[in-house]
Every structure is written in C-alpha cells, then in structure tokens.
Amino acid sequence: MNKRVEIAGSSLSESKELDQAVSVICDLMEKIYREGDYPKLMVKRSWSEHNPIITGEMALPGAYRWYLMREIKKLLEKGAEVKVFPSRPRVAMNDPVLFDNADEDEWDITQKKLFLFSPERIDLSLNRLEHYTGTQPKDFQRYILFTNYDMHVEVFNKLYPDCVKPDRPVQMPAYHHKLPDNKGFSLVNIGVGPSNAKTISDHAAVLRPDAMIMVGHCGGLRNHQEIGDFVLATGFMRADGILDNILPLNIPITPNHLLNIYMMEVLENYERNFRLGTVYTTANRNWEFIKKRTVEEIHVSRSVAIDMESATVATNGYRYRVPFATLLCVSDKPLHGKPKLSGGAQTFYENSKEMHLKIVIDALEMSKANNPEGLPNASVRAINEPLMGGAE
To answer: Which CATH architecture has domain 5-120?
Structure first.
C-alpha cells in the first residue's frame, strides 16, 4: 500500500464509492501509525471562506475508526479534498518531549474538534485509559456512562451478559456492550470524587464519544424531594475546585438540551418523580462538617442536589466538545434529618439501581434513533470553531 493518498469528494458519486474511499483513508492512517509515523490528514474545503484548509496528526486511529469514518465521509460528501501521508516519527512514551507536545495550552481550536488533541496526547490518554479501565480503547462505544457504584455494574452485566469486561483488577473498571460501528454503551465505575471524574473524562474524551452521562446518587436539598426521586441537572455549581485553574468559574456549564429532553420523556413515561435544577458538586465528602458555609453557597446557587462528580464531568464535556448530561437519584437528605446511613442506604440502592440505569439507556436509545450520526454539535463549539461540515 502506498503511504500517500489523495481523494477528492467531488469525484465520488455513489455511497458505495464514498465508503470505499473513506476505508482507504482510514486503512492508510492505521498502516502509517503501525509502521512508526504519525499519519497526517489534510482537508481542503473549497466552500469555506475563512478556514479552507485544516490539518492535523493522528495516533492510534484504529481506536476511534468509527468516528474518523463518519467525519471524513461527511467532508467527502460535501466535496472536500482529503490527503493522508506520514508526518513525523512517533514520539516514544518515555521521551520527555511527549508532554511538551501534549500541552493543552497549545490547542488551536480553529482546526476543529477532529484535530483537537495532538497525537502525543492521544497516545498517552489511550494508554492510560487501558491502564485505568482494564479494557482496550477500541472496545469503548459511542455512549459512555460514568457511575461510582458496583450496583450499576451488576445491572449492566445483567442487561448485557456478553459485555466486554476488565481483564484484571483495576482502579476504574469498564464494561462495554459492543454493537456494530461502536453504537453500543460503555459503563465505567469511576469511584468517588472529582479527581477520578476528571482523570477518566480527560482520557475518554480523546475517543470523541457521542455522549458522556453521569449516572450517580446525590443528596436531595429541597423539602419536596423524597429518597428515590431523580434529579436531572440543568446547571452546575462548581465547588469541586478541580478545573478552576483551567476553565474560569464564570463560564456557564449546561448539559446537552436534547439529552435532557430525552431523559425527561423517559422519566415521564416511567412516571418517576424528578426535579430539574442546579447540582452542587463538592470535593469534600464530609461537607456537612462545614455545614454553614456550604449551605450558604447552596442557597445562593439555588441547588437542588449535592454530589461529588457531576460538575467535573460536565466541565470536561464542555472543554472537550462532548455532549454531556447528568441524571442523579436522591439517596439521602442530609439537611432534613435523613443522612446516608448504612442500613437505609443499602435498601435504597436495591430499590433504585435497575430503574436508574434503564432510564439513561432508554434515553440514549432515543438519541440514537433521532440522531444516528451524533447529536448536533453547534452548542459545544466556539464562534471561531466552525462545524466540520459547515459553510464557514
């Protein structure tokens, strides 16, 4: 196979020709990477007045081939010209230069989300993703669910007994219900706390998933909430402190509107009680020990629930242009004389675990049916970051 290919979308008239052309491009990128170089993709978009040529280097393209196939096909369908060729030798994982080239401060977002990550960052993140989850990056599906409870893993394994499981004990085990074209679901038990939430979403975002959903529990903060009610986040109070030096606190973080609509519809179909509102995310598991200070922030933010991961996942979803949402289940009401205590918590978990996961999966099935090529991404791009297939 030649190590350079150039394909003009305008010369392809049939869908079969398009699919074959995209396969040739992806095959070549994988070959170049295997043989020791980073593949470089150059795209000429004649319709773009302000940004006609975009380029970027890739690493491990086979891990997210489904995404490359989809995005490149969109470009060719619109008449773009695509070139692939070797760029430079791969940087070894133990080379200090690796981190210089993975620095997010060097992002050029005008190059589009297709090229958001440098190849060094892709190599590093996918290596760490395998380390933390005990599964191969290529096994991850388009829809990623994050939980911090073994009980959701039990439910997932019951729903999908043939799912791919970790091959060894790991920190954040992942489970994958694989479907053709990576249209299944992945569940990752991330453990407790915003540091874990940042770590896993830093690395999972490199795979360019179609959605990241936080499926967790929370403390209910309002009088008219009951144990077992659901909370669908519409915003986040970022009291976790994990990303404050990376993304300013005055930037609004809101979940994907369509994902929330689908989850609302499923919640209503199941006749479940739920509230919309702000989720307060803290890094302090024992926040009740500084109750006065925390409650003042809760009141000012008008939060309806408190947890330890949701805002962190949401903020990284925002940073990395990945649609995200949060569905929590009220496990305790610490401000109303109902703290999370061992016996009551276990009863709650048994009563809620199957319904919680099923609601999220049903909502994602609706999203898949209505948006088979991914959710519209206009809401996660900047004004100087045109859509991949856009006319800008």
So the answer is: 2-Layer Sandwich (3.30)
